[in-house]
TrEMBL record:
It comes from Mumia zhuanghuii. This is ABC transporter substrate-binding protein. The keyword NADP does not apply. Residues 44-313 form the ABC-type glycine betaine transport system substrate-binding domain. Residues 1-29 form the signal peptide. Coiled coil: none annotated. GO terms for cellular component: ATP-binding cassette (ABC) transporter complex. The lineage of its organism: Bacteria, Bacillati, Actinomycetota, Actinomycetes, Propionibacteriales.
Length: 319
Protein backbone atom coordinates (compact mmCIF):
# COMPACT_ATOMS: atom_id res chain seq x y z
CA UNK A 1 0.00 0.00 0.00
CA UNK A 2 1.54 3.34 -1.00
CA UNK A 3 1.84 6.27 1.42
CA UNK A 4 -1.05 8.26 -0.10
CA UNK A 5 -3.44 5.31 0.15
CA UNK A 6 -2.28 4.61 3.69
CA UNK A 7 -2.99 8.20 4.70
CA UNK A 8 -6.49 8.01 3.23
CA UNK A 9 -7.22 4.72 5.02
CA UNK A 10 -5.92 6.10 8.32
CA UNK A 11 -8.02 9.26 8.00
CA UNK A 12 -11.13 7.26 7.03
CA UNK A 13 -10.67 5.00 10.04
CA UNK A 14 -10.32 7.97 12.32
CA UNK A 15 -13.46 9.53 10.91
CA UNK A 16 -15.40 6.27 11.42
CA UNK A 17 -14.21 6.03 14.99
CA UNK A 18 -15.33 9.58 15.69
CA UNK A 19 -18.71 8.94 14.10
CA UNK A 20 -19.22 5.79 16.21
CA UNK A 21 -18.32 7.71 19.36
CA UNK A 22 -20.83 10.42 18.56
CA UNK A 23 -23.62 7.89 18.03
CA UNK A 24 -22.87 6.34 21.41
CA UNK A 25 -23.18 9.65 23.29
CA UNK A 26 -26.50 10.28 25.09
CA UNK A 27 -28.68 13.20 23.98
CA UNK A 28 -27.85 16.30 25.98
CA UNK A 29 -30.29 18.83 24.67
CA UNK A 30 -29.58 21.44 22.02
CA UNK A 31 -27.40 23.94 23.88
CA UNK A 32 -24.77 24.00 21.11
CA UNK A 33 -26.35 25.29 17.88
CA UNK A 34 -23.77 23.32 15.87
CA UNK A 35 -22.31 20.56 18.05
CA UNK A 36 -20.63 18.86 15.08
CA UNK A 37 -18.64 22.01 14.26
CA UNK A 38 -17.70 22.36 17.93
CA UNK A 39 -16.42 18.80 18.02
CA UNK A 40 -14.26 19.40 14.95
CA UNK A 41 -12.56 22.56 16.25
CA UNK A 42 -9.13 21.98 17.80
CA UNK A 43 -8.56 25.62 18.61
CA UNK A 44 -6.65 28.53 17.07
CA UNK A 45 -3.18 28.29 15.54
CA UNK A 46 -1.04 31.01 13.98
CA UNK A 47 1.31 30.21 11.10
CA UNK A 48 4.08 32.71 10.40
CA UNK A 49 7.18 33.15 8.23
CA UNK A 50 8.83 35.69 5.95
CA UNK A 51 6.83 37.38 3.21
CA UNK A 52 8.13 36.16 -0.16
CA UNK A 53 6.71 33.87 -2.83
CA UNK A 54 7.96 30.52 -1.57
CA UNK A 55 6.99 31.26 2.02
CA UNK A 56 3.54 32.45 0.90
CA UNK A 57 3.06 29.05 -0.74
CA UNK A 58 4.44 27.13 2.24
CA UNK A 59 2.31 29.09 4.68
CA UNK A 60 -0.74 28.12 2.62
CA UNK A 61 0.35 24.47 2.52
CA UNK A 62 0.82 24.42 6.29
CA UNK A 63 -2.32 26.44 6.97
CA UNK A 64 -4.62 24.37 4.77
CA UNK A 65 -3.17 21.16 6.20
CA UNK A 66 -3.92 22.36 9.73
CA UNK A 67 -7.39 23.56 8.76
CA UNK A 68 -8.08 20.09 7.40
CA UNK A 69 -7.10 18.75 10.82
CA UNK A 70 -9.71 20.98 12.47
CA UNK A 71 -7.70 24.05 13.54
CA UNK A 72 -8.73 27.67 13.14
CA UNK A 73 -5.73 29.05 11.27
CA UNK A 74 -4.42 32.61 11.12
CA UNK A 75 -1.50 33.35 8.79
CA UNK A 76 0.83 36.22 9.64
CA UNK A 77 3.83 36.75 7.35
CA UNK A 78 6.48 39.27 8.42
CA UNK A 79 9.67 40.88 7.09
CA UNK A 80 12.38 39.20 9.14
CA UNK A 81 13.13 35.95 10.96
CA UNK A 82 13.85 37.86 14.18
CA UNK A 83 10.20 38.98 14.42
CA UNK A 84 8.56 35.58 14.11
CA UNK A 85 11.21 33.67 16.06
CA UNK A 86 10.53 35.77 19.14
CA UNK A 87 6.80 35.09 18.75
CA UNK A 88 7.36 31.39 18.10
CA UNK A 89 9.37 31.05 21.31
CA UNK A 90 6.67 32.83 23.33
CA UNK A 91 3.78 30.83 21.79
CA UNK A 92 2.23 33.87 20.11
CA UNK A 93 2.99 31.95 16.91
CA UNK A 94 2.68 28.16 16.93
CA UNK A 95 3.98 26.98 13.55
CA UNK A 96 6.53 28.25 11.02
CA UNK A 97 7.81 26.69 7.78
CA UNK A 98 11.58 26.99 8.19
CA UNK A 99 14.88 26.23 6.48
CA UNK A 100 17.15 23.95 8.49
CA UNK A 101 20.45 25.83 8.23
CA UNK A 102 18.67 29.18 8.19
CA UNK A 103 17.06 28.71 11.58
CA UNK A 104 20.21 26.98 12.84
CA UNK A 105 22.53 29.83 11.90
CA UNK A 106 20.10 32.35 13.40
CA UNK A 107 19.80 30.50 16.72
CA UNK A 108 23.55 29.91 16.87
CA UNK A 109 24.23 33.61 16.42
CA UNK A 110 21.61 34.53 19.00
CA UNK A 111 23.06 32.12 21.55
CA UNK A 112 26.79 32.45 20.88
CA UNK A 113 27.35 35.75 19.08
CA UNK A 114 28.04 36.81 15.50
CA UNK A 115 31.51 35.24 15.49
CA UNK A 116 30.31 31.81 16.65
CA UNK A 117 31.65 28.79 14.81
CA UNK A 118 28.94 27.51 12.39
CA UNK A 119 27.06 24.39 13.51
CA UNK A 120 25.44 23.79 10.11
CA UNK A 121 26.95 21.72 7.30
CA UNK A 122 25.84 20.14 4.05
CA UNK A 123 24.93 16.98 6.02
CA UNK A 124 21.23 17.00 6.95
CA UNK A 125 21.41 14.58 9.89
CA UNK A 126 24.40 16.25 11.54
CA UNK A 127 22.90 19.69 11.06
CA UNK A 128 19.53 18.61 12.46
CA UNK A 129 21.16 17.16 15.58
CA UNK A 130 23.06 20.40 16.21
CA UNK A 131 20.13 22.70 15.51
CA UNK A 132 17.70 20.65 17.62
CA UNK A 133 19.72 21.49 20.72
CA UNK A 134 19.61 25.22 19.97
CA UNK A 135 15.89 25.12 19.15
CA UNK A 136 14.96 23.24 22.32
CA UNK A 137 16.70 25.89 24.42
CA UNK A 138 14.25 28.56 23.16
CA UNK A 139 11.09 26.45 23.39
CA UNK A 140 10.95 25.36 19.75
CA UNK A 141 10.69 21.82 18.37
CA UNK A 142 11.76 20.89 14.85
CA UNK A 143 9.68 18.20 13.14
CA UNK A 144 10.80 16.04 10.20
CA UNK A 145 12.81 17.69 7.39
CA UNK A 146 11.55 17.46 3.83
CA UNK A 147 13.68 16.28 0.93
CA UNK A 148 12.95 19.72 -0.57
CA UNK A 149 15.86 22.06 -0.01
CA UNK A 150 16.08 25.74 -0.91
CA UNK A 151 19.80 26.40 -0.97
CA UNK A 152 21.78 29.26 -2.42
CA UNK A 153 22.82 28.25 -5.90
CA UNK A 154 24.68 29.65 -8.88
CA UNK A 155 23.52 29.73 -12.47
CA UNK A 156 24.94 30.57 -15.88
CA UNK A 157 23.26 31.01 -19.23
CA UNK A 158 22.64 27.94 -21.34
CA UNK A 159 25.00 29.32 -23.98
CA UNK A 160 27.80 29.87 -21.44
CA UNK A 161 27.34 26.37 -20.02
CA UNK A 162 27.46 24.87 -23.52
CA UNK A 163 30.53 26.88 -24.54
CA UNK A 164 32.62 25.66 -21.60
CA UNK A 165 30.86 22.29 -21.08
CA UNK A 166 29.74 23.19 -17.56
CA UNK A 167 27.60 21.09 -15.23
CA UNK A 168 29.20 21.79 -11.84
CA UNK A 169 30.94 24.60 -10.03
CA UNK A 170 34.13 22.54 -10.26
CA UNK A 171 33.74 22.61 -14.05
CA UNK A 172 33.57 26.41 -13.91
CA UNK A 173 36.77 26.52 -11.86
CA UNK A 174 38.50 24.17 -14.31
CA UNK A 175 37.53 26.41 -17.22
CA UNK A 176 39.82 29.08 -15.71
CA UNK A 177 37.77 32.00 -17.01
CA UNK A 178 37.39 35.27 -15.10
CA UNK A 179 33.93 35.50 -13.59
CA UNK A 180 31.77 38.44 -12.57
CA UNK A 181 29.05 37.48 -10.10
CA UNK A 182 25.65 39.09 -9.54
CA UNK A 183 24.56 38.34 -5.97
CA UNK A 184 23.24 39.61 -2.64
CA UNK A 185 24.81 42.69 -1.12
CA UNK A 186 26.59 40.71 1.61
CA UNK A 187 27.99 38.10 -0.80
CA UNK A 188 31.57 39.35 -1.03
CA UNK A 189 32.76 38.04 2.34
CA UNK A 190 30.33 35.14 2.85
CA UNK A 191 31.67 31.59 2.90
CA UNK A 192 28.57 30.35 1.05
CA UNK A 193 29.00 33.01 -1.63
CA UNK A 194 32.03 34.73 -3.23
CA UNK A 195 34.52 33.79 -0.50
CA UNK A 196 33.66 30.10 -0.70
CA UNK A 197 33.53 30.11 -4.49
CA UNK A 198 37.11 31.36 -4.44
CA UNK A 199 38.48 29.38 -1.47
CA UNK A 200 36.66 26.04 -1.89
CA UNK A 201 36.34 25.88 -5.67
CA UNK A 202 39.10 28.16 -6.88
CA UNK A 203 36.79 30.13 -9.16
CA UNK A 204 38.32 33.40 -10.34
CA UNK A 205 35.68 35.85 -9.04
CA UNK A 206 36.89 39.22 -10.31
CA UNK A 207 33.91 41.31 -9.20
CA UNK A 208 30.66 40.99 -7.25
CA UNK A 209 27.77 43.13 -8.44
CA UNK A 210 25.35 43.64 -5.50
CA UNK A 211 22.16 43.20 -7.52
CA UNK A 212 20.29 41.10 -4.95
CA UNK A 213 19.61 37.43 -4.30
CA UNK A 214 17.78 35.77 -7.21
CA UNK A 215 16.69 39.17 -8.42
CA UNK A 216 15.38 40.06 -11.86
CA UNK A 217 18.27 42.54 -12.17
CA UNK A 218 20.82 39.81 -11.46
CA UNK A 219 19.31 37.42 -13.98
CA UNK A 220 19.18 40.12 -16.64
CA UNK A 221 22.83 40.92 -15.95
CA UNK A 222 23.63 37.27 -16.71
CA UNK A 223 21.53 36.98 -19.86
CA UNK A 224 22.92 40.28 -21.20
CA UNK A 225 26.51 39.14 -20.64
CA UNK A 226 27.27 41.75 -17.98
CA UNK A 227 28.11 38.91 -15.55
CA UNK A 228 28.92 35.25 -16.07
CA UNK A 229 27.40 33.92 -12.85
CA UNK A 230 24.27 34.80 -10.88
CA UNK A 231 23.20 33.81 -7.38
CA UNK A 232 19.73 32.19 -7.29
CA UNK A 233 17.85 29.52 -5.32
CA UNK A 234 17.61 25.80 -6.01
CA UNK A 235 13.80 26.15 -5.97
CA UNK A 236 13.67 29.04 -8.46
CA UNK A 237 11.02 27.89 -10.91
CA UNK A 238 11.70 30.56 -13.53
CA UNK A 239 15.28 29.64 -14.49
CA UNK A 240 14.34 27.65 -17.58
CA UNK A 241 12.20 30.51 -18.90
CA UNK A 242 15.14 32.84 -18.29
CA UNK A 243 17.55 30.63 -20.23
CA UNK A 244 19.61 29.86 -17.11
CA UNK A 245 20.94 26.57 -15.75
CA UNK A 246 22.14 25.71 -12.25
CA UNK A 247 25.69 24.53 -11.70
CA UNK A 248 25.83 21.67 -9.20
CA UNK A 249 27.42 22.43 -5.82
CA UNK A 250 29.52 19.27 -6.10
CA UNK A 251 31.76 20.10 -3.11
CA UNK A 252 28.89 20.82 -0.72
CA UNK A 253 29.61 24.49 -0.15
CA UNK A 254 26.01 25.24 0.80
CA UNK A 255 24.64 24.09 4.17
CA UNK A 256 21.54 21.88 4.34
CA UNK A 257 18.51 24.13 3.84
CA UNK A 258 15.81 21.47 3.92
CA UNK A 259 12.29 22.69 4.58
CA UNK A 260 11.25 21.80 8.12
CA UNK A 261 8.28 22.64 10.37
CA UNK A 262 9.31 24.61 13.46
CA UNK A 263 6.69 24.37 16.22
CA UNK A 264 6.27 25.89 19.66
CA UNK A 265 7.15 23.11 22.11
CA UNK A 266 4.43 23.88 24.67
CA UNK A 267 1.73 23.95 21.98
CA UNK A 268 3.01 20.71 20.46
CA UNK A 269 2.48 18.86 23.76
CA UNK A 270 -1.29 18.89 23.24
CA UNK A 271 -1.26 18.84 19.43
CA UNK A 272 0.60 15.74 18.28
CA UNK A 273 -1.97 15.22 15.51
CA UNK A 274 -0.84 18.50 13.97
CA UNK A 275 2.74 17.25 13.99
CA UNK A 276 1.70 14.06 12.21
CA UNK A 277 -0.10 16.00 9.48
CA UNK A 278 2.80 18.42 8.97
CA UNK A 279 5.27 15.54 8.81
CA UNK A 280 3.15 13.88 6.11
CA UNK A 281 3.27 17.13 4.14
CA UNK A 282 7.05 17.33 4.53
CA UNK A 283 7.38 13.74 3.35
CA UNK A 284 5.71 14.68 0.08
CA UNK A 285 7.83 17.74 -0.74
CA UNK A 286 10.84 17.57 -3.06
CA UNK A 287 12.97 20.37 -4.44
CA UNK A 288 11.53 19.82 -7.91
CA UNK A 289 7.93 19.95 -6.64
CA UNK A 290 8.62 23.15 -4.71
CA UNK A 291 10.24 24.73 -7.76
CA UNK A 292 7.13 23.85 -9.78
CA UNK A 293 4.88 25.47 -7.17
CA UNK A 294 7.04 28.62 -7.21
CA UNK A 295 6.83 28.75 -11.01
CA UNK A 296 3.04 28.55 -10.92
CA UNK A 297 3.00 31.71 -8.82
CA UNK A 298 5.95 33.64 -10.26
CA UNK A 299 5.61 32.65 -13.92
CA UNK A 300 1.97 31.61 -14.38
CA UNK A 301 0.66 34.23 -11.92
CA UNK A 302 -1.55 31.80 -10.01
CA UNK A 303 -2.49 32.58 -6.41
CA UNK A 304 -0.57 30.83 -3.60
CA UNK A 305 -3.85 29.73 -1.97
CA UNK A 306 -4.97 27.98 -5.17
CA UNK A 307 -1.56 26.45 -5.90
CA UNK A 308 -1.36 25.05 -2.37
CA UNK A 309 -4.87 23.58 -2.45
CA UNK A 310 -4.28 21.87 -5.80
CA UNK A 311 -1.02 20.36 -4.54
CA UNK A 312 -2.55 19.05 -1.30
CA UNK A 313 -5.46 17.50 -3.20
CA UNK A 314 -3.20 15.92 -5.81
CA UNK A 315 -1.00 14.44 -3.08
CA UNK A 316 -3.97 13.02 -1.17
CA UNK A 317 -3.24 15.14 1.90
CA UNK A 318 -6.72 16.59 2.40
CA UNK A 319 -9.85 14.86 3.64
Amino acid sequence: MDSTTLRRVRRAAAALACATALVALPACGNDDPDPEAGARSKGPVTVSGQNFTEMQILAELYGQTLEDEGYDVTTKLVDTRAVYMDQLSSNKVQVVPEYLAGIGDYLNTQANGSTAKPVTTNNVEQTLDAVNTLAESVGVTLLEPAAATDQNAYAVTEDFASKYDLATLSDLAAAKVPVKLAAAQDCKDRQDCAKGLRDVYGIDITEVLPLGFGSREGKEAATSGEVELVQVATTDGSLEDDGLVLLEDDKGLQPAQNLIPAVNTDWLTDNEAAATALNELSESLTTEKLADLNAKVDVDREKPVDVAKEYLEDEGLLG
